[in-house]
């Protein structure tokens, strides 16, 4: 039996989570779903966005499924990543049929360092002698340990998933010490994987932003630091039809959290309009993590069939179906 922490969160998080659990319950797999609270609504009720009880539940689980958070997203997701040491954020960029994808056959992975960089939250105001705020500073931390760990993860992922190339993304021409260190470590790790037939290359982050639009098929696995990975992965989502289709995984040494990358979308919450695919595909990534690869493949194929047919899809995909109607259509296509 797998213990799965379930955090529906805010807004459409509840709806896409219901749609996703509908899929998981249809599989011949023994799940114990442990529900927990976090997010804006939780903070309104308890004054805390991420209660200690929720952290305890996640720590006891084999994996965690998260729906969406609103204004408290940073307080919830960033803290969970730090508490669980979920150092690797995985954002697949994959084309699906029947969507607004700009390219038909994209399939690459962005591996983003999750624990440091600009997102450590070390900020301060600059004040004059009268105490007036005249500016602000933010500290960026890049360490050898974290850089080596994320680069090792990216190359190992490439090896295990038959990928042929890993691209390191940085801005070492300007951020000479922090990104200079990241680039140096990237090539140290790359050297160990040459005998595995895995190529390596590196680009500046601004050039990469252009290459994602002009030649995205040249990428296989991208590895980069926290802020750059956050920005590039959303650009990647734009290539393949938007955030409603993009899952993600946050992986640590012995824990993992899976979540769609869209927000809580309060403007459509409670109306059954939300596209559940990103959350369902996040569950597919969870199944792969749990080594339930047959089930993961079956659900992924079912999503592919429903998107291809375009008969039972939500409004953002050109259809008129509700969130749960689309979930049911996917469930009916599962062959497992």
From TrEMBL:
Residues 3-330 form the Isopropylmalate dehydrogenase-like domain. PROSITE patterns: IDH_IMDH. One of its GO terms (molecular function) is 3-isopropylmalate dehydrogenase activity. The keyword Isomerase does not apply. Its cofactor is Mg(2+). One of its GO terms (biological process) is coenzyme B biosynthetic process. The keyword Magnesium applies. Keywords: Magnesium, Metal-binding, NAD, Oxidoreductase. Belongs to the isocitrate and isopropylmalate dehydrogenases family. This is NAD-dependent isocitrate dehydrogenase.
